[in-house]
Amino acid sequence: MNGSNPAISSPSISPPSMLTLVLLTGLSAMSISIFLPSLPQMAEYFDVEYSVIQLSISGYIAMNAVVQFVIGPLSDRFGRRTMMLWACMIFVLATIGCLLTDNAYVFLFFRTLQAVVISAGVIARAVVRDIADERDAASMIGYIMMGMSMVPMIGPTLGGFLGEWFGWQASFILLLISGIAISILTYVDMGETAPQTRSSLVQQVKSYPNILNNHAFWAYSLITMFANGTFFLFLTGGPIIGSVVFEMSPSVFGLYFAFTPLGYLIGNYLSGRFSKHYGMQKMIAAGIVFAAIGLVAILLLSYSGLTTPIIFFGLMFLVGLGNGLILPNATVGMLSVKPELIGSASGLGAAIMTGGGAILSTSASIVVYSGSGVTPMVWLMLLTFGLVALLYWWSCTIKVEHSHR
Prior knowledge:
It is a single chain. This protein is an all-alpha fold. Helix content is 80%, strand content 1%. It has 18 helices and 2 strands. It has helices spanning 18-33, 39-46, 50-53, 55-78, 80-100, 104-113, 119-131, 134-166, 169-189, 201-206, 208-212, 215-245, 250-257, 259-278, 280-303, 309-335, 342-367, 375-403; strands at residues 8-9, 196-197. The protein has a two-stranded antiparallel ribbon. The longest helix has 33 residues, at 134-166. The radius of gyration is 20 Å and the shape is globular.
């Protein structure tokens, strides 16, 4: 496969264990969600408006897009292992910075710097695609995301109790301990799987047009962007709905929040179990159907006067299930367009996915406010899934055109 490219030679494959890949991606997921129930507490501690401390989510997500844009070609050029070790070290130092400051804007700086840990997701996907073919990769990524999805299911619940018992800093102390432990695990277990390339970083970046001119890459990248964007909408608007609409305490919100990642967990398991047999297109279609059913049911029940926490968060389970079916399979479709540029494709696609999610997350504060109820946010989520359906149809037409050539 790589033999046609003189700048690439065979890799010395020493893949990390599945557990290492799960824990690495799990750390990146935990750093997003564990402190969500403590956001009102943090705003009070730093003596700022809630909208300011909310930048710890949207700013973090925006920086994710920047990191993912560059980490792909860097991992192609310098290796998956090297870049992952650097990312872990920077994450640990940034977490220490978050804990030591009492200034909101210094905190936001270090919090944004924590986003470097998102490299784990890009590099883990690239490692899988280094060592597996398309159908096996979809199953492996499904299992990795299944393990990873347990973190946002448990994280906010744990963070809610930690915040009530010990203060918001306890969540960041847990992130620090986890970051140090996983850095050591990465050093010990993660071998190099990337093809050895003699291309410079500039040459790697110049390869981006080869990826961006591919219609299939855009179809699958945008599918992941809008599907994941619905979760970012929920991530940002959910705490407001929990505290303002349903008047929940942080620990209670953390328990209800777990419904969505539980659905994602099951969807990832189903992707790992069945993608190899049914193919990624059918799995993506099933995910769209489940998510749409959940969102439409919330709207119908809300307009009928039935808006309760168990109805809203319980039906969000189906949205999580849909994303669990869509994201692993669309990700493999995205990575398969240029096998010789897996790291770059992984980084570019993740940057597109996260950048769009950052934009959608900021819109949550516009549609969710005191007195808004749940329907404006649900309508926005349903609209984004409508776009996912259109992009899915586009990806199918691209597959048909390719098969007729």
